[in-house]
Amino acid sequence: MSYQEQRSLTYLITNIILFTVYGLIIYNRYQAGQFDTDNLMRFWAIVILLYIPIMIIARIVVTIVFVILHAIVSEVAGEGADEVDMVSDERDKLIEMKSSQIELILIGVGFVAALVTQLFGLSVHAFFLTFVGFMFANDVLSEIANLRYYRRGF
Amino acid sequence: MSKLIIENNVRTQRFLHGEMTQKDLARAVGVSRQTIVAIEKGQYSPSLELAFRLAMAFNTTVDELFHATEEK
After folding, report:
1. Domains (ranges, CATH) in chain B?
2. Host domain of residue A142
3. From chain A, which residues contact B within 8 Å (Cβ)?
4. What is the C-alpha R_g of chain B?
5. Domain total for chain A?
6. Cβ distance A43 to A37 under 8 Å?
7. Residue B41 reports pLDDT greater than 80
8. Cβ atoms of residues A48 and A107 within 8 Å
9. Cα–Cα separations (whole angstroms), residue A16 to A132, B14, B71
10. Span B4-39, pLDDT tens digits
């Protein structure tokens, strides 16, 4: 498995774990009445606005840890950490662009699906759960797409 | 419009240049080793700039390094 595939797989696993843990924490706190549930819009604003920096910080930390671990494992395996494998080139940018396309489509579809819940008179929770669900699907599917593109060459 | 199949002689050129490694070639043209692997396997068609860089690395021309055939 190449460096890029390992990195995509790491991000994929991180996204799933973080989303699940964050979702469980929020759910438990919500059930325990630790949020102001009278103002649902404010509740969801807090949930989403907290999730974004957490994801950004987690991505930075995971990237640093991954690079260090990759270097150590390569060194132990006797291959030596090689910057040639870590270079970001035109193929990486093309793959990034293709997965960004998937992200944009899913965000758009997610927003429309969330609006449809309101069309059927469902609650504010349904709107945001649909939207957040698509955000998660977007994170997971874009990494799966990355993996697939790296596996088949492009 | 029929699909173009782009093939290349990168593997042959590496052999002709003292069995140059994929890593050395990648370093010479500024890409990752995986990109060289993908090009050699015909899975990825490089940009014009990278094609020229590869040709320069082998002291040859793009025309000699890459050739296209129409899929029937």
Report:
1. 4-70 (1.10.260.40)
2. 3-152
3. 2-4, 82, 84-92, 150, 152-154
4. 12
5. 1
6. yes
7. yes
8. no
9. 13, 42, 42
10. 888 899 999 999 999 999 999 999 999 999 999 999
